[in-house]
## 1
Amino acid sequence: MSGREGGKKKPLKAPKKESKDMDENDLAFKQKQKEAQKALEAAKQKAAQKGPLVGGGIKKSGKK
């Protein structure tokens, strides 16, 4: 064993990812996802303004 071969070997470099051109279907899908995300955020804010939906739950009698 010579000094050059010892130790870890460097991993091979991964090939660079090509920039993918987006067609109309991809753009429409991304736009639809953004709109769905905005609608979900709006629904969360609207739900947070109101109080809890259920006021009761399981009530304990206090007897042991």
## 2
Amino acid sequence: MSTMVYPREERLEKLSQEEIISNTKLVIQGLEALKNEHNSILHSLLETIKCLKKDEEANLVHEKSNLLRKSVEMIELGLGEAQVMMALSSHLNAVESEKQKLRAQVRRLCQENQWLRDELANTQQKLQKSEQSVAQLEEEKKHLEFMNQLKKYDEDVSPTEEKDGEPPKDSLDDLFPNDEEEHGPGMQQQHNSAAVAAAQQGGYEIPARLRTLHNLVIQYASQGRYEVAVPLCKQALEDLEKTSGHDHPDVATMLNILALVYRDQNKYKEAAHLLNDALSIREKTLGKDHPAVAATLNNLAVLYGKRGKYKEAEPLCKRALEIREKVLGKDHPDVAKQLNNLALLCQNQGKYEEVEYYYCRALEIYQCRLGPDDPNVAKTKNNLASCYLKQGKYKEAEVLYKEILT
């Protein structure tokens, strides 16, 4: 009977879950049929026992009925096991269904997590753009404040300026910085825009009617807005030439400013042409030994230096030095600045003896006139120490570096 209900163990291992369930259902159906058959037979035997009168025959029927009862019990046991298997299969299906639901939830959570990450990235980008907008607005605010200051400056001219009319000094003497542009094959661009440095051009004071336009050129050039600065400067230059003629010191001043704006844009040919024109005008109108002529010579030397033409720049720088020594005296700080420029030009040509001489002179002037704690003293010492290092004079360089640190 057991061989009818259960399949062989060899085949059982190879059956899938669906096949096991299908076979179990067939077994249940067979067992139900067998149970019903046995019950009918047992019922007929019990009826027969009631009709029989002989003891032997009754005993035989009793034995058969007992065997049938045992068979029915086994059948019921098989049915119970089969039903347990069916219940277990149903439970496994429910577990699998729950597992699929959990997997779907995990996928949904992963998608939501990715969506949240994308939203966070977009929010960060918007925040960055907002910060940039705020920074731009702050810059525009500073520019507007600067323009308001310019208006006040134009309206409230001090009595000292009107009375004395002293020409402002040319701050372009330091276009070869002391500590950053002494190395490399060419001279790099200075941190501060050259157009900003052009705010104080040597030789003549900017007329009141042109001062606002002049300051605007400087402001726009310092912000890198050359598309605005250049037309403004050209307009000022055109107005000056119409009212005062080409050979006028103010024209030379505006030529100098425009040249420095061009130099900031690496338009060296245009800048050189304008500076030579400004130099010619200043020599005609102011004389060859005027400080404004020295300023223009220095600007030309700087321009040649930036293009790597150190031999052409050196005589221009020396002539500017001679003029400043003659006009200002040999111990003036502006002379020391010119000496630094000349030393840097010589250093790029490998003339280290001349470099040491110029730096030592500049250092002596700064220490005597400005004091040992002036920043220019430390810068010049640093330049001289660098010169010593290139010559292998490590002890001398070490002494200077220690002095700078202390």
## 3
Amino acid sequence: MTSNNLSVLEALDTARTQWYHVKAIVIAGMGFFTDAYDLFCISIVSKLLGRLYFSDGNSTDPGKLPTNINNVVTGVALIGTLAGQLVFGWLGDKLGRKRVYDITLILMVICALCSGLSFGYSPKAVIGTLRFFRFWLGFEIGGDYPLSATIMSEYANKNTRGSFIAAVFVMQGVGIIFVGLVSMIVSHLFLTANPAPPFHEDNVLSTQRNTDFAWRIVLMLGALPALLTYYWRMKMPETGRYTAIIVGNAKQAASDMGRVLDIEIQEEQEKLAMFKANNDYPIRSRKFYKRHGRHFIGTMSTWFLLDIAFYGQNLTQKDIFSVMGLTKKANDVNALEEMFLTSRVMFIIAMFGTFPGYWFTVPFIEKIGRFYIQLMGFFMMSVFMFIMGIKYDYLATKENRWVFAGLYGLTFFANFGPNSTTFVLPAELFL
């Protein structure tokens, strides 16, 4: 028995695109904007943390985070994200998408603010509390991430489902852009108020005292977009698919979806009971693996492979910019100037390389298809990364820095490719 036998599901699948769909994209998308901002802003502020808390007065180079501490600070949120996806994904099925979605939002706000506070001034206290709250921030992001896709897929109609989910995912690109933009603005304002000599002229005064406020403000601003959408999240009803299929309340599902879609939907409680009997099976059952085993392995493995490249590239790009000559050497700038220059390059690459790929996916995913976009993206990523890896010593010079930047900017094909489709496909295949 298919979903078309139930009026509420058929109504959702065939509903014309209307204002409520747009509102759902914005609400779910702002959650994704927050996720991206919170995950990637740490790559900007980690350089400041090194100068502030790990400087050696006798060294000829600015302070930087030790490798093991840097890896933990930048990566601990991703560990939390993995755990959060498993926990909140399970809770989303048990308690409802909307309820868990609201919980993740509140906790994200709290953890973003606490990440910026990071109580204390000693290196041990700051790094310890930062790691603690970044883990839990990642944990909440892990809940928000799959629920955004699930909610949008359960609201969308068949004809535009891929485009709608991809439009939610676009906000990841916007979040990355705002990481660079916000960091540029904050560092510029602080730099204007507190100019300082470069490190090679004065290794002490080159790290302005107000730098300690700059990195905290950048992290804490991650709470703002989540707060701005809280009211609208609270006003969203539970998705009709969850209410009907999992809760088994056809009357409530018909009422909720009929109200937001402005149509009349039949309740069909008896038909719903028959539908649940034919489609109710646990994830670890033989029936699930018979129906979705290949889908599960395929979506899981491609997402895993993509994330190694995507997150590895975006979280470590700050270390590549100076090597390429896109920013000045650390010795030639003060702390806030280094933050400003790094943010500017990150903003430019995100605006003209990363971001357009997301938007190309929205109109073309229904025309080209998920499979071909994903295949093309993986292929193009492999080609450009292979070239950068083989020719790294040649490209990572001042003379060839713009060629390297151009190749690096062709991460366009990660986003007009597997970074978008690995988000869309699971939400559709397991619907």
## 4
Amino acid sequence: MTTTVTQLVFIPAPVIGHIRSTIDLAKLLVNRDQRLSITVLVINPPSGSRSGSVITTYIESLTKKPIERIHFIELPQDETLPERDPKAPMTFVNNFINSHRKYVRDTVSNMISQTGSCRVAGFVVDMICTGMIDVANEFNVPTYIFFTSNAAYLGFQFHIQTLCDDHNEDVIELSNSDAKIPVPGFMNPVPTKVFPSGFDTKEGLDYVLLITRNFRKAKAIIVNTFLELETRPIESLSSDSRIPSVYPVGPVLNLEDDAGTLSESDVISWLDIQQPSSVVFLCFGSLGCFDEVQVKEIAYALERSGRSFLWSLRQPPSSEQTSRAPGDYEDPGVVLPEGFLERTASIGKVIGWAPQAAVLAHRAVGGFVSHCGWNSLLESLWFGVPVATWPIYAEQQMNAFGMVVEMGLAVEIKLDYKKDLFDGKSNIVTAEEIESGIRRLMEDDDVREKIKEMGKKSKATVKEGGSSYASVRCLIDNFRSNIT
């Protein structure tokens, strides 16, 4: 008897962090069930962008080491991009992604027309690719959203949409106030100062409402989180009949790709000679970078703290670049205080891009100053490394609030710091604030114990008998039910 192959179409967003998470989810699924086959449709960023080259390099590395039953197809791109308005960046993002719908349609048509026992059971689309639901509907195929952030923030998005659509609330005015509001799934009222960037403008809010309304059209939402970490938000989502079924499947992490890179560098050698849990690691994600004034404040704080440090210092993109992705300095000394590198040579190391997971895994690392991207927070939990929060963009302020106030798993440098990715504007965090945060990070034993305990739970949940392990099984059964 021939086993019917369950074919899934994955469409990640053209952002390296989202693509990595999506492919890690794909690997998890095919490893759990031999009947699954996944085709990943890759949308490359606009031609010539630095982030595009990072994604291309990553996809090429995957194709050199083929993954059984995961296939990659890079979608063509229109020669003429949608109109880009600096005052409406998210409109451009949405229009750019949707300009690939015709290519998705053609690709899936070809897949279906091929003979064999393969049937498309579902589209799994990134949380910012919800326009692809229309394409899935044309093929009478259900859509699943892969929400690469956490359950609390998912609930927050639904709540904001409800306030707008059902209660006619002026969320823009609310976002620009100093209010605190109750949100389902949160124990504490949520301050408007930690609302993500964009909720205070019509263009940004319209975009959030568009994708959140589309979430409700999906058959289910897959979330990279786990029940033991976000019990209250997950239960809140599951109790609302207007929200599709939620599958917490995390932590979905890739802890292998960076290991080789790290061992080939001198970073590992430097960490090897440091005392256990003595090093503060500063890393701000794939888009995190600061101007010279802020860099100097960080440097003053590190020097005054006297703590050993490993600092991933990235160079902001120039105004001529189409990409927002930072690069590495040829000489970081040009933006650091004079003599800083010499004075701290015995206790610190300044590097460019960092293999983050591999660094966090090292016994010498005792604290993590982070931008609070969700992948980074899951990695810190997995390795039991406490975090000092310095959110920058997207929903990172909400993540920081959750980690510090809701769960007590982090200490605060800032909760409400925001940097506009499109014009670079931000406030300055002072050396005094940074130094104080670093001291609390390295000295707060309660937070350290809590995060180590949660780290044990994060490892247990993905093993047989764990809640995420069971959730993945239910999700696969849901996929399979579409073709039986």
